[in-house]
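User: Can you fold this complex?
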Amino acid sequence: MADHPSDLRTPVSRVRFLGSARMGTTDAWVVHLTSLALAPLTLGFVWLMLDLLHKDYNGVRAELERPIPAILLLAFLLAGVVHMEFGMRSIIVDYIGGQPRAWALAANTCFAALLALACVYATLRVAFT
Amino acid sequence: MASSDALPGPHRRRPLSPHLSIYRPTMTMAMSIAHRISGAALYVGVLLLAWFLIAASADATTFAVFSDFIGSFIGQIVLFLVSWALFHHLVGGIRHLVWDAGYGLDAPLRDQLAWATLIGGFALTVLVWIVGYAVW
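Assistant: Here's the predicted assembly.
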């Protein structure tokens, strides 16, 4: 409905971008799924860290060479990094707008990806060398 | 120039949180903020884990640098704060899962759950540190 007969804009141009982006469900699902996985994985991770607490270099490596601690650690790392990336994404879109938002989102994804690669590489290197 | 609130399409200003000037503080609000702060702290704190793993994958000398830091007074303070953030975020996350499932949203219980997050997260942290220092 045009308030003004001389308004050249179409009704659709006046309502576009005013609704939701319809992209929130996947984000919410990923955050919930990883949080559900991380609850038991965190307890396992804390147990593993307590186990490594009084060990020296060789002791730590001997523990991380065993399959169950290594797989537990890898699962915790992967679920954790995905959860962390989505969490920071929601912080960014809450507080940062415009062009800086795009840069912040890109930096967040790159940081999370690099962190995951570094941690997984290091864990596998301990396990296989 | 007209306020961008009046503009149509993508140029319209969207509301940004937090609405601290709109809602007065409550316990659930405080724990919501604490959940976000602890999450952001873990975003940085995970670098300690990365350092630990990379040092362990290198040689004994590199590992000793990490080991000396984490065993130092500053290192222990940082590790305590990161572990508190971890347990606070863990307990707070479980509270959010309970809420998202539709339970515990009524007036007395939601505040009790918020307090339980604060107390439970700190209690778990202290418990694990006591186990790490005295029992293990």
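Chain A has a mean pLDDT of 92. Chain A touches chain B at residues 9, 13-14, 16-18, 32, 35-36, 38-39, 42, 46, 50, 53-54, 56-58, 60-61, 64, 73, 77, 80-81, 84, 87-88, 91, 94-95, 97, 115, 118-119, 121-123, 125-126, 129 (CB under 8 Å).
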